């Protein structure tokens, strides 16, 4: 069974006002006081962000437990210095982000200007184990059209600088400003993948391989495919669903590769349109069907994804829970829908953040 690990980026906020707080260094220092060898929490581009990474897990119940534990630990460390955490992919309230002081972050600020300043966006990255780079690239080639469905399911960023963007995942639109971000056409081999990466680094537009921001890429540090399209999910259960579907996609793609089935091979132009549609609509309207690239109701497209990975999920015992969670999301909406419902009910973005803090730690 393939292992799965999740990286989540959390927003540090004031527990009273809901405003983002640039306190990541203090939170990390507090975590290090508890455990000098802790390797769970990491700094990120902006000082208002805190990242954690789970250990690789084979079972989804174990993954769920670790995500919940890491969120609670993050909240505990943050609380000890006067702030808290929220699983929000953008800040609903206005914010002036501050870039971290590291050499890498300062290079990005100098080279990319306002793009770096405005990248206070928070994602969920899923690592799924693969046997080799060759298998990993074959997987990347075959999962591309399906990744937009993960974007729609995880959509959790409707607000930006105090306004409703009319998008469900505005984070993904901001993220696309990086020069290396987005979908890719089939590479066909690991050699071609690595050559493309080397050519991109050689341009000098990006600093190194760590700035290869493909929607799905080979991890530099682990024998995994890293899927990077999702907003950080408001509910931990949604994060587990995304991880479950990601593993199903990887396993299904690897089997298709071994059976000699070719990738769908949609152009980047079509994949970008599908990604835009998912960001705009989330689960509330139509999406582009990954096989046909034609508009269909979101529910139909989600069911198509479940059918596509159904055999793989059934073998790991995850199919029934994935179906149930998808049904619930289609009923109540993703995190973006929850945020908008809270805003309609309370009329206050501050109250939206306060309730999302509670949900994050539930």
From TrEMBL:
Question: Does the entry feature the keyword Kinase, yes or no?
Answer: no
Give the EC number. Answer: 6.3.2.2
Signal peptide range equals none
Pfam families attached to this UniProt entry: GCS2
* EC supergroup of this enzyme: ligase
Is Lipid biosynthesis among the key words of this record? Answer: no
What keywords appear on the UniProt entry?
A: ATP-binding, Ligase, Nucleotide-binding
Q: Which InterPro entries does the annotation name?
A: GCL_type2/YbdK_subfam, GCS2, Gln_synth/guanido_kin_cat_dom, YbdK
SUPFAM superfamilies assigned: Glutamine synthetase/guanido kinase
This entry's Gene Ontology molecular function terms read: ligase activity
Catalysed reaction, written as an equation: L-cysteine + L-glutamate + ATP = gamma-L-glutamyl-L-cysteine + ADP + phosphate + H(+)
Member of which family? Belongs to the glutamate--cysteine ligase type 2 family. YbdK subfamily.
Biological role: ATP-dependent carboxylate-amine ligase which exhibits weak glutamate--cysteine ligase activity.
Q: What is the protein's given name?
A: Putative glutamate--cysteine ligase 2
